[in-house]
Amino acid sequence: MERILSRENLMTAYCRVKANRGAPGIDRMTVGQPWSHLEEHWSRIREDLLTGRYRPAPVRGVEIPKPGGGMRLLGIPTVLDRFIQQAVHQVLMPIFDPDFSNSSYGFRPGRSAHEAVLAARSHVAAGRRFVADLDLEKFFDRVDHDVLMARVARKVADKRVLRLIRRYLQAGLMAGGVATARTEGTPQGGPLSPLLSNILLDDLDRELERRGHAFCRYADDCNVYVRSRRAGERVMASLTRFLGERLRLSVNVAKSAVDRPWNRSFLGYGMTHHQKPRLTVPASSVKRCKAKLRASFRAGRGQNLAATVDDLTPILRGWTAYFRFAEARGVFEDLDGWLRRKLRCILWRQWKRPWTRVQRLIQRGLDRQRAWLAANNGRGPWWNAGASHMNDAFRKSFFDTLGLISLLKEHQRLLHAP
């Protein structure tokens, strides 16, 4: 606890929490406010932490949609508790991380989802042409506190720290103005949750290594690569028993399966069936991207098109950067065309009246008769956005001048970057 509360560690934690921003907790304090609060109350808070009297505030429950459907519950701690959790995380991470498995990639310094995906591809290229794809059912909601704390206590002897971590696990969840006590789970949202999940699932990694399996785990998403379907089914059955008996966790039967790797996706990526598989962007990932972009398009109906392009740019750059290892050009070309069509659709909606549409099309170089026929064709905005008159009036060069990035060009640049 003294290491956690050292000035150097606390200053680093404060800067990290402030840089991460994040939403306020139940006290509505923002990341820009806590310094004055700490100056006034820190001596008391520090004394409570040193003597084991400190009690965290309840977390604010927020539900967000999951990519595959359904809702994910986030527990957002107050800024003060995020600050303390970050300070604890910075001391515990160097203690636990060096002994984690090399096949564990999630929430670890110097490791990424890209490394996990590339490792998965190498396992398939080595001849392991079946995958046991395990999805843990509501993992962050079902973590058994006693099982988790027993694993933390293997390397942490300070009872004050153990007591503090358990109190964070048990901190109430505030939803609808009512705080309910928690007896299981570690809701995502605090700095400690990712580390605690790796501590718990390290037992799974060690069991897989003991059996000699090739696997990749990112948080609660674990793929085990084997050479036959029968082997995959044996692995799935035995790991389901192991997780239930040893860690008291359940496998989501509906989302888990033994299949060919090219029929499944891993961390958003797919792969081909070739001897040396190529990484792809599956249809499900494209669908999620389009759903995210539609919010910006809806907002763009009432603003200048250049402002809409500015709103889209960080989303597009981030998405392309994540999928920079995909080797199929077609997905990026198709998305480029879809983006331009959506922007043409916004223009058509903004013009509203046929006479306005005629004038705008003439201004863009169409002859009067063609502009008149196009403006009065009775078709909807999406059809017109894909029709030849809008494509001729607003070519790719027009969107280039607005600063709309080409996903294909951006991908090619990132793919060949050193």
In whole angstroms, how far apart are the ends?
43 Å
Note the overall shape: globular
Structural class: alpha+beta
Tell me the radius of gyration. Answer: 26 Å
Strands, count: 10
In words, what does this structure look like?
It contains 18 helices and ten strands. The protein has 418 residues and is of the alpha+beta class. The strands form three sheets. Strands 2-1-4-5 form a four-stranded mixed sheet, with no helix packed on it. Strands 6-7-3-8 form a four-stranded antiparallel sheet, with helices on both faces. The longest helix is centred in the C-terminal third of the chain and has 23 residues. The model has no long low-confidence stretch (mean pLDDT 90). Helix 6 packs across helix 8, helix 8 packs across helix 9 and helix 11 runs parallel beside helix 18.
Write the layout of secondary structure elements.
Elements (H helix, E strand, L loop, with lengths): L6 H14 L13 H18 L7 E7 L5 E6 L2 H18 L16 H13 L4 E6 L3 H4 L2 H8 L6 H12 L2 E3 L2 E3 L11 H20 L2 E5 L2 E6 L2 H19 L9 E3 L10 E2 L7 E2 L2 H18 L4 H18 L6 H23 L2 H10 L4 H8 L5 H6 L1 H6 L2 H7 L4 H9 L3
Parallel strand pairs: 1-4
Antiparallel strand pairs: 1-2, 3-7, 3-8, 4-5, 6-7, 9-10
Helix pairs in contact: 1-3, 6-8, 8-9, 10-11, 11-18, 13-14
